[in-house]
Amino acid sequence: MRAVAFDLFGGELDLRELPDPSPAPHGAVIRVEATGLCRSDWHGWQGHDPDIRVLPHVPGHELAGVVEAVGADVRDWLPGARITVPFVCACGSCTSCAAGEQQVCERQTQPGFTHWGSYAEYVAIDHADVNLIPVPEEMAYVTAAGLGCRFATAFRAIAQVGAVRPGEWVAVHGCGGVGLSAIMIATAAGARVVAVDISTDALQLAEQAGATHFVNGSAGDAGAQVRELTRGGAHLSLDALGSAQTCVASVESLRRRGRHVQVGLLPGGATPVPMDRVIGHELRLLGSHGMAAHAYAPMMEMIRAGILHPDQLVTRTIGLADAGKALASIGSVPGVTMITPRFPL
């Protein structure tokens, strides 16, 4: 198969021929029709993720495609099915999975991290009966691929972990794929959204996604700017980027008894969270890690009903030949970039 791989952390990302994967007895091989360019893949390429232990490695963790083959123990799926998957692939049998919390599975696998990912023509997925999600015929693969990481992550972070309510102020720090998704979801829930970014192009996309107030972080003290705009601070604030600066700004954006949700992955090193404010204002600091496959139904129904439009967040589509360069320069093009491995050849 054709795939993008690297031999050294931070080294060249090149397109090469690699062996096709085979399904595990409980797994499936997916013919990739679309896969997303995500900052998490950049972190993996840079060596920030301890799950990547063997090189060469193929990135890519949010995907949609067609079941190519299934293992002997798979009951619910046959070749030819249109599917997507969550980026956290659960085992289905640990204590967390038994409680319905597959997004924190104790034996989880993640394509693009624990094993070769979806910047390729084919990818292997473990425990197919637990992790595959049907994609309706009317949904494009490019749309479906963006659900498995950024859109589903944002949906759970805003609607479930953050428990957004109509009329609340929501601040979203970082208007990349996750941030734009969060803005769209919070707006659909009836919240008032403040978008925070250092890019004017990203803030323009945030307005299209539903934000009504804007803070350019390059102007200084984004937290104070959000508190002034909202007359006291956001009820809910999300760090969708993942840096010490955006994490601190998100916490400092909150009003008393506000909720901070950390979604963006933080690279190694200290993150000086203002704990005096957390204590004095009784803030809640929450983490959110994807969404289990069984929890997709409400989100898929909102997309089907035309309430949510994840397709509108896609700003470019590229082939595998351009994927390495795009990952190396991630953040330089606003919005969501999708890779379609089968075109151009």
UniProtKB/TrEMBL annotation:
Cofactor(s) required for function per UniProt: Zn(2+)
Cited PANTHER family: ALCOHOL DEHYDROGENASE-RELATED (PTHR43401:SF5), L-THREONINE 3-DEHYDROGENASE (PTHR43401)
Superkingdom per UniProt: Bacteria
Keywords annotated in UniProt: Metal-binding, Oxidoreductase, Zinc
Family according to the record: Belongs to the zinc-containing alcohol dehydrogenase family.
This protein's name: Zinc-dependent alcohol dehydrogenase family protein
Domain (Enoyl reductase (ER)) ranges: 10-339
Keyword Ribonucleoprotein appears in the UniProt entry: no
CDD domains in UniProt: Zn_ADH6
Pfam families: ADH_N, ADH_zinc_N
